Amino acid sequence: MRDGDCRVREQAKREIEILRLLNAVDHEHGFIVRMRDQFKFSKRLDSTVTTFVCIVFEPLEMSLRDLLLRETSDETGPVGLTLEFVRIVAWQMLVALSLLGLPSINVIHCDVKPENIMLKGLGRPVVKLIDFGNASFGNNKEMPK
After folding, report:
1. Does 145 map to a domain?
2. Total structural domains within the chain
3. Residue 73 and residue 76: Cα distance in Å, rounded?
4. What is the distance between the alpha carbons of residues 97 and 108, in angstroms, rounded to a whole number?
5. Does the N-terminal or the C-terminal CB of the chain have fewer CB atoms within 10 Å?
6. For all residues of the chain together, what is the average pLDDT?
7. Which domain holds residue 94?
């Protein structure tokens, strides 16, 4: 087993535990991506068996980055997003980030960017914070048991 494989497995294990914690407390608003399932998949690669950790998430439409790229210009110039849309997305992200700071959670996301903010659909804006692979527990705490 290579060192990189161990690190990736530990990172996946941490992400799964963080998602379980967050999904357990994020009932009211739902601005954290929902983990539906997780499983391990083994495959023989180059005479060794490699195990992959797979996480199944709820279906989401597109990232905020993709929306921004789609809405940046047309024939007449930049289009952009409405102020109301930006307010809604900002409020939803503040709610999601505030959950991470709860004393029972205490998680630092470490990678908040437009690519990691997904839209649930293209109608009324509902966003989900995703990708907790680089997240860590605050104050160097271990995962709660």
Report:
1. no
2. 1
3. 7
4. 9
5. C
6. 87
7. 3-140
Q: How far is CA 12 from CA 52, 112, 132, in A?
A: 9, 18, 9
Q: How far apart are CA 105 and CA 138, in angstroms?
A: 9
List pLDDT tens digits, range 78-124: 677 889 999 999 999 999 999 999 998 999 999 999 999 999 988 88
CATH number at residue 34: 1.10.510.10
How much is the average pLDDT of 11-38?
A: 92
Q: Which pLDDT value is given to residue 94?
A: 96
55 occurs within a structural domain: yes
Positions marked active-site? 111
CB distance 95 to 118 below 8 Å:
no
